[in-house]
Specification:
By secondary structure, the chain is mainly alpha-helical. The chain has one domain (2-56). The chain is built from three helices and no strands. It has helices at 2-22, 24-34, 42-56. Helix 1 packs antiparallel against helix 3. The longest helix has 21 residues, at 2-22.
């Protein structure tokens, strides 16, 4: 039973890491195209929030 919980936590941690890392891609692309770092997409915020929620959950 405990091994199942550890495997579940590992899966959620991996998903959270992927979501958080992938959240930076839209920002990098947008900043590169516009040459302004002040452009933050809503997509970025949603992905970061999803990743953090997985870490906290």
């Amino acid at each position: 039973m405990m091994e199942d919980l550890v495997a579940y936590a590992d899966i959620i941690g991996t998903i959270a890491g992927i979501l958080v890392l992938s959240s930076f891609v839209p920002q990098i692309v947008r900043a590169y195209k516009t040459k302004k770092m002040s452009d933050v997409s809503a997509h970025l915020m949603i992905l970061i929030a999803s990743g953090v929620a997985c870490f906290c959950g």
